[in-house]
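Kindly inspect what follows.
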Amino acid sequence: MSDAANERLFDHQAAREWKLNKTRNKVDKRMDLTEAIATLVDDGDSIVETGFAYVRGPFGAYWEIGRQKKKDLLGIFTPGGLNNVWHEEGGVTGCHVAYVGVEMRGLISPFRRGVEAGTLKVYADWSHDGLALALRAAEQGVNYVACKSMLGSDIIKSNPYIKVTEDPWTGEPVCLVPAIYPDVAVIHVHHADKFGNSRIWGPTVNDTAIAVAARKVIVTCERIVDTDDIRTNPYQVIVPSYCVDAVCEVPFGAWPGDMPGMYYFDRRLQERVVREYWKTAEATKEFIEQFIYGTKNIYEMLQIAADLEGIHLLDYVKRLEELAFDATNYAPGFWGIGGGRDWKYEEYAKPLI
């Protein structure tokens, strides 16, 4: 249950013992995504969302978690984009929240329904910085870090895990933010080798800390490459192999989100899902039945979306990324998001020209 997962989240000693028992040997960790989720995601686990909501989020893995009907998960939303939807199927029953939403596309109605109905327990509200610091503390191997960022908010009143104390040097108040150790993290990357060394182009958000903080780490990637290829660009290796338990090649694994430098948001599908499918519990169930339970993998989902949108979907999102990405805004070797993008967009119901 979520309560047990919540206790493990703050169990420093158990997390350290777990990590000491992980192998540092060069082991071939390649496996199918279905096998990785079945093996490494247990009912009752805590799972931390990675990327930044719909930017490089590991959606192929999230769909598979739902397809396998994993139960009683505790979500760590830093921010949250998808996992919170599973609570209506019994998948996510508790959460820690910094943010939940789809930016300009709207709110995530299933999350609101769950909180209002009491079927989704919110253990604590956090600021973005607060959760980032909690993960960073775990990465650094300390029990907590001090900050001032939440002193001016009501978060310290509602969050029982943050303590306010006196700075021993200045006498000023400071927040003590505890380290957190999620059970599972799935990180979607551009390239990885068979050992788990993983390359990310663009913003890493909290993933450098999450890779070390989480007990079990699944890497999904657009392409598995040779280790010699990884070694030619070591500065781009964001996730080291010793943190990783499984490597899964999942092309378009961030769809319908954005993969910097490769493909753009599938905005039409996102808007349809947020504004239609997630509007009611009945419509959400219809979406899950059609797109998740009714498919075997992300490629069958892509086919449904392509049929629905009536376009060459993959070519379309790749072309949008090319148009949106302005390489002149970035230093050589660095890929970013938002360079030349026009954030004005058509309603999903309007035909594409």
About this structure: The longest helix spans residues 128-140.
